[in-house]
From TrEMBL:
Keywords: Acetylation, Hydrolase. Belongs to the glutaminase family. PANTHER family: GLUTAMINASE. This is Glutaminase. GO terms for biological process: glutamate biosynthetic process; L-glutamine catabolic process. Substrate binds at S66, N116, E162, N169, Y193, Y244, V262. It comes from Rubrimonas cliftonensis. Its EC number is 3.5.1.2. One of its GO terms (molecular function) is glutaminase activity. InterPro entries: Beta-lactam/transpept-like (IPR012338), Glutaminase (IPR015868). It catalyses: L-glutamine + H2O = L-glutamate + NH4(+). Pfam families: Glutaminase. SUPFAM superfamilies: beta-lactamase/transpeptidase-like.
C-alpha cells in the first residue's frame, strides 16, 4: 500500500464530516448542479513506478476549468519559448480571475497566464497555424499523454455553456484584440479557451498529469515534457498566481504551488516528491474549492510539505 494511503483516508474522512461546503459555481447549469458533498483526493509520487494513491470520489470526473491553464501554458511555452513573456506577464494580479481593470492600464498585456485574460492570450498562441479544433486536440493530446489515459476529453455541454455565458471573457478578448495582443479572431481564440476549461478529469488522472511539474519537467517514463527551468517557472507561477487574489492565503495555509478551477478542482505540486489533486465542487468567496483548500491544508500539515515551515492545524484564519 502507498505510504500516502492512510493520510488520504484520514483527509477524506475528515472532509466528509465538514458541514460548511461552499456553493458550486452557478454561472452554468453543468457546474451548478454538481453535488457539494462530493470529495476526491489523489497523490501521484514522482516515481512513476508507484501508482497514485487516492481516496473518496477520486475516480469521478469533474470539469477542470482553470486548472487547464497549467497545461495550456506548458504547451505554449514549448511553442513560443520565452517570446511568450512579451505578451503575458509573470506577476500576481491581486484581482479576481475574470477582472478587466488592469488590462487598460497595462495596454492589453495580462499580468499572468493564470487569470482569464492571460489564458486567452495563451489560447491565441496555441492557435498559430492551426484550426481551433486542432489546437484543442493538441492540449487534449498533451493531457492524455501526461496522465496515460486516452479517455480524457472535453465535456461538450460545458463548452457550449461557457460559450453561451462567456460575455466577460469576450470582453477581455476584444479588449486585448483592440490592443493588438491577439493574432486570431476572438471567437476562435475563445473556442479554444472554452474547450480547454471544459476538459473533464478525475483527481487520479489530474494528479498523474501534474507529475512532470514535481519531476523537473519529466514524465515518469523520464520523457521530457518541458525543461527543468520551465517547470520551475510554472511552479512559481502556481504558487504566486494559482489562486488569483487568494494566492497569498493558499501559500500560508497550504504552502505549495497550486492551481484551482471553478469546477472545484485544485492541482498541487510538491517538487521532487509528488503531485496531487483534490476536488470538491463548493467554492469559497474567491471562487476556489472550500473543502479542497481545507483538504490540501490538512494534507500539507500531515506531510510537512509546506515550504513555509510546519503547519500544525489546518484551521484557516490564524
Ligand atoms: N476560475 C476559473 O476556473 C474560470 C474558468 C471559467 N470557465 C471562466 O472562464 O470564467
Amino acid at each position: 500500500m502507498s505510504r500516502f494511503q492512510a493520510t488520504l483516508d484520514a483527509v477524506a474522512a475528515a472532509m466528509a464530516r465538514e458541514t460548511e461546503r461552499g456553493a458550486p459555481a452557478s454561472y452554468i447549469p453543468e457546474l451548478a448542479g454538481v453535488d457539494p458533498s462530493r470529495f476526491g483526493v489523489a497523490v501521484a509520487p514522482v516515481d512513476a513506478a508507484r501508482p497514485p494513491a487516492a481516496a473518496g470520489d477520486a475516480d469521478v470526473r469533474f470539469s477542470i476549468q482553470s486548472v487547464c491553464k497549467v497545461f495550456m501554458l506548458t504547451l505554449a511555452l514549448e511553442r513560443a519559448g520565452d517570446a511568450l513573456w512579451r505578451r503575458v506577464g509573470r506577476e500576481p494580479s491581486g484581482d479576481p480571475f475574470n477582472s478587466i481593470v488592469q488590462l487598460e492600464h497595462e495596454r492589453g498585456v495580462p499580468r499572468n497566464p493564470f487569470i482569464n485574460a492571460g489564458a486567452i492570450v495563451v489560447a491565441d498562441v496555441l492557435l498559430a497555424d492551426r484550426t481551433p479544433e486542432a489546437a484543442i486536440l493538441d492540449v487534449l493530446t498533451l493531457v492524455r499523454r501526461l496522465c496515460g489515459d486516452e479517455g480524457v476529453g472535453c465535456d461538450a455541454r460545458v463548452a457550449a455553456s461557457e460559450a453561451r455565458t462567456g460575455m466577460r471573457n469576450r470582453a477581455l478578448a476584444n479588449f486585448m484584440a483592440a490592443e493588438g495582443n491577439l493574432r486570431h479572431p476572438v471567437e476562435q481564440v475563445l473556442q479554444v479557451y472554452f474547450h480547454c476549461c471544459a476538459i473533464a478529469m478525475s483527481c487520479r488522472q489530474l494528479a498523474a498529469a501534474g507529475r512532470y511539474l514535481a519531476a523537473a519537467g519529466r514524465t515518469g517514463g523520464c520523457d521530457p515534457v518541458i525543461t527543468p527551468q520551465r517547470a520551475r517557472r510554472i511552479n512559481a507561477l502556481m504558487l504566486t498566481c494559482g489562486h488569483y487574489d487568494a494566492s497569498g492565503e493558499f501559500a500560508f495555509s497550504v504552502g505549495i504551488p497550486g492551481k484551482s478551477g471553478v469546477g472545484g478542482g485544485i492541482l498541487g505540486v510538491v517538487p521532487g516528491v509528488a503531485s496531487l489533486a483534490v476536488w470538491s465542487p463548493g467554492l469559497n468567496a474567491k471562487g476556489n474549492s472550500l473543502i479542497g483548500s481545507k483538504a490540501m491544508a490538512m494534507l500539507a500539515a500531515r506531510t510537512g510539505w509546506s515550504v513555509f515551515g510546519p503547519l500544525d492545524d489546518p484551521a484557516p484564519g490564524r
